[in-house]
Amino acid sequence: MPDTLVTKPLLRVLSGERSPIPPVWLMRQAGRYLPEYRAIRSKTESFLDLCFNPQLAAEVTLQPIRRFGFDAAILFSDILVVPYALGQRVSFEEGNGPKLDAIDSPSALHRLRREIDHAKLVPVYETIGRVKQELPSGIALLGFCGAPWTVATYMIAGGGSVDQSPARQFAYRYPDAFAELIETLIASSASYLIRQFEAGVDAVQVFDTWAGVLPPDEFRKWCIEPCARIVAAVRRSVPDAKIIGFPRGAGTKLVPYVESVPVNAVGLDWMIELGFAREQVQSARPVQGNLDPLALLAGGAALDRSIDAILEAFAAGPFIFNLGHGVLPETPLAHVERMIARVRGAASRS
Ligand code: CP3
Q1: Distance CA 185, CA 117 (A)
Q2: What is the Cα–Cα distance from 199 to 13, expressed in whole angstroms?
Q3: How much distance in Å is there from the Cα of 78 to the middle of ligand 1?
């Protein structure tokens, strides 16, 4: 794919090049802060219906590109389609987030399929094909999955949870059963990402949203090792696969993460010290991040200051501008416009 590498700034950064103007996209850029998203969402019965409707999911994927001209589109879907394709019941309740039938004991694991059912995910692959047809040539299309640990936290708790306590307890009490679940998720996630590449994504991101709650030994077992194995498995089928890892909240554990997980770029959350990230992470790998979503929501001088500090820390090396977590639904559109102008303007002046 040498031609796409040349024309898509985000892919050039993932190959290790510095871009004079950092490419920019936002996690959760397709979502409720956009009135055009809310209009489409209000016409669908449920969130999963929207994820599995290729025409509408493609439309929603493209909405933030049309409005803001981001350098990447991210497939509109959810990390919980993987448990769904493993046979777990998954629903999203208005205002309450996801709901799954909790895996509260080792025996409950037997309710799951051993292998992911790709037939259930065909609409996702079709969405990718549709987006590809409409996406301007300089803009990258990102696929994604959740990392095994993060997906397991929802599968075990049956939804979101405080401190991911149910999954942490399950892993301590039933290490063999937990390891079996992680194995299933490693294989399923790798296979899901390979299909996304075959359908046409340019790169993928692995979201380990809850990596930060794990103590160091568990972090190695349930974040580093599974993520490294997913990267290796994907590259066996797609040798040049470009992969972004996002171990949110990893802090100083970013050092072993970078040593052992051969991703092309590391997504940084907003909590990390910028100098530490530049010296310990960007010295080894391109980085992506890490504006506090609340600074974007608040706007004004705090937003400008935060953007400038991030550019100052990272723009001299290979860098993708993003948030340190997803866009919040209350974020004013004008703040997103201001952010993009500042990132592109400041960079072009230097
Ligand atoms: O980034 C994008 O724009 C692409 C789409 C995307 C969604 N979820 C759409 C979504 C992506 C990449 C995700 C990832 C995801 N989903 C993660 C990892 C990243 C993160 O945010 O931590 C996680 C943990 C989930 C699980 C999930 N999905 C939760 C906990 C919730 C409820 C909280 C909430 O924000 O509503 C969702 C629902 C969800 N996923 C929505 C969207 C647009 C909102 C549902 C709606 O519109 O009705």
Answers
A1: 12
A2: 22
A3: 6
pTM of the model: 0.97
Residue 5 region by backbone torsions, left for phi larger than 0, else alpha for psi between -120 and 50, else beta: alpha
* Residue type for position 120: K
Cα 238 → chain centroid: 19
Over the stretch 34-61, which tens digit does the pLDDT of each residue have? 999 999 999 999 999 999 999 999 999 9
Task: Give, as one character, the DSSP assignment of residue 121.
Answer: G
Ligand 1 center from residue 19 Cα (angstroms) = 29
Closest-CA residue, ligand 1 atom 41, reads 31
User: For residue 55, what are the contacts with CB-CB under 8 A and spacing of at least 6?
Assistant: 130
Question: Does the Cβ of 25 fall within 6 Å of ligand 1?
Answer: no
The token duo for 335 is: 């703040």
In angstroms, the CA 231 to CA 226 distance is: 9
Can you tell me which residue has the tokens 């970078």?
258
Residue 202: exposure state from Cβ atoms within 10 A (0-12, 13-18, ≥19): buried
Res. 4 pLDDT band, cuts 50 70 90: very low
Q: Is 35 left (phi over 0), alpha (psi -120 to 50) or beta?
A: alpha
Q: Nearest-5° angle of CA 136, CA 247, CA 121? A: 55
- Residue 99 Cβ < 6 Å to ligand 1: no
